[in-house]
Amino acid sequence: MRVVTWNINSVRLRLPRALELIATVQPDVLCLQETKAMADQFPAAAFAEAGYPHQAVSGMKGYNGVAVVSRLPIEETDRCDFCAKADARHVAVRIAGGPELHNFYVPAGGDVPDPVANVKFAHKLDFLAESRAWFAAARTREQPMILVGDLNIAPLETDVWSHKQLLGVVSHTPVEVEALGALQAGLGWVDAVRRRIPPEQSLYTWWSYRARDWDESNRGRRLDHVWVTEPLAGAVRDASVLREARGWEKASDHVPVIVDLDLP
Question: Tens of pLDDT along 90-113?
Fold first, then answer.
């Protein structure tokens, strides 16, 4: 089973790119974040025509939004509004004959890495803590599950272009990395991408629009992740990042992450 996750940064604006991705990569399940569309605005018919009629969409007007489109039958199992905010940052589905999949869009956290001075950063930390508590109460580490999405944190030194320069920058601060690590440890999630691409190798999934030449400067961060619970760790066959997608016409600032799983 091929799972692809991508922060598309507006599904209606970048629908042609999504259809190009589908034609090129042929995912079984495509998970999108930052769709920026209400459920009734989501281009469901276009995805269905492309061979992905099975869909679970959580959206809001103009911001956030997550969606799962699949050529395999799926059943929605949960959508959680963490921090008492109905801000469309999570949806879960069960893939027919397969595992449960959770699609997340973690808050970015603003610019100031101080939860007292910056309510957006406080929200990010609270979101991670509530997510960890929710999983602990609602799921077990023995369940085969996949967690994907824009988690808005680059945890490893090799997940950022400069560990030293970004230690004080939101997305790579020690407090965020610790919070993400606590979420990961909660159910013993395994980083599927780093299981196949060594942690020593620099790897990015996001490059800022502010860069004059994103490719040449290569000041990236790995903000987009695919995790699996231990029962699926041995099923991870391959993982890759579609870096060239950052150079597509009207590109998102994120690129797709691809993970192949050998499932019964």
Answer: 999 999 999 999 999 999 999 999
Phi and psi of 240, rounded to 5°? Answer: -155, 165
Q: Where do the structural domains in the chain lie, given as residue ranges?
A: 2-261
pLDDT in tens, 179-193: 999 999 999 999 999
CATH fold label, 2-261: Deoxyribonuclease I; Chain A (3.60.10)
Tell me the C-alpha distance between 92 and 74, whole Å: 10
> What is the band of 264 on the pLDDT scale with cuts at 50, 70, 90?
confident
The answer to pTM > 0.90 is yes
Neighbours of 117 (CB within 10 A): 10
- Return phi, psi of residue 233, to 5°: -60, -40
Question: What's the CA gap between 155 and 132, in Å, rounded?
Answer: 17
Buried-state track 120-130, b at ≥16 Cβ within 10 A, e below 16: ebbbbbbbbeb
Long-range contacts of 85-94, Cβ-Cβ distance < 8 Å, separation of 24 or more: 85/123, 86/60, 87/60, 87/63, 88/58, 88/59, 88/60, 88/63, 88/64, 89/58, 89/64, 89/127, 90/58, 90/66, 90/131, 91/56, 91/57, 91/58, 91/66, 91/67, 93/56, 93/68
